[in-house]
Design goal:
Layout (H helix, E strand, L loop, with lengths): L1 E4 L5 H10 L3 E5 L10 H9 L5 E6 L4 H11 L3 E4 L5 H4 L5 E8 L5 H6 L4 E6 L14 H8 L6 E4 L7 H8 L3 E4 L4 E2 L2 E2 L1 H12 L9
GO molecular function, one term: phosphoribosylanthranilate isomerase activity
Protein name: N-(5'-phosphoribosyl)anthranilate isomerase
Organism: Selenomonas ruminis
Amino acid sequence: MKVKICGMKSLLTAKVAEEAGADFIGFIFWPESHRYIEPEHAAVISSQLQHSWKTGVFVDEDIEKVNEIVRQVHLDFVQLHGHENAAYARKVQCSVIKAFRYGDNFSAEAANEYPAEFILIDAFRPGKLGGTGESFDWRSAAEEIAKVEKPVLIAGGINIDNLQTVLRTFHPYGVDVSGSLEVDEEKSISKIQAFMRRARSLPRGRKRQ
């Protein structure tokens, strides 16, 4: 099972996450998030990462700015977390992760048709675009999400205690975590290390297709 740790803001915690086995390191480039990082700072961190896939999270950003940051930070993936359509996604100059919110008229058909390598499924909260730390009704969602043909990352309220439940329910390609690894809105080294130990002790999910 792959692990994406999102909302990185410091070189130390990013390196700790990579050394602990995180597959994706995520940077938030949405200015309204308290996890926002300046591209210049993210570029410094990115230059020191050797193995993890570097992912930039954007929300309805100008496509030219997105691609500028892709080049500046040397991103491997762009995660589109807003209302970006397929035509927009095709203009992104690296691989795409598209976020869908379960409960916001989510359908596997729409996810399958979207031009993205990975599909991320987060909780839907009116007026919120993710990063709430809240989960969705996993049991009711499992049947529809199982119809998604692309590799799926599950997000929303995932922590060390419910990680195994997520795996048993969805058998996902991976999980996306952020808030549960923080203390006072900053990533905790001990929480990152403990979560990664737990993740690595569990069976692997779906393979990348």
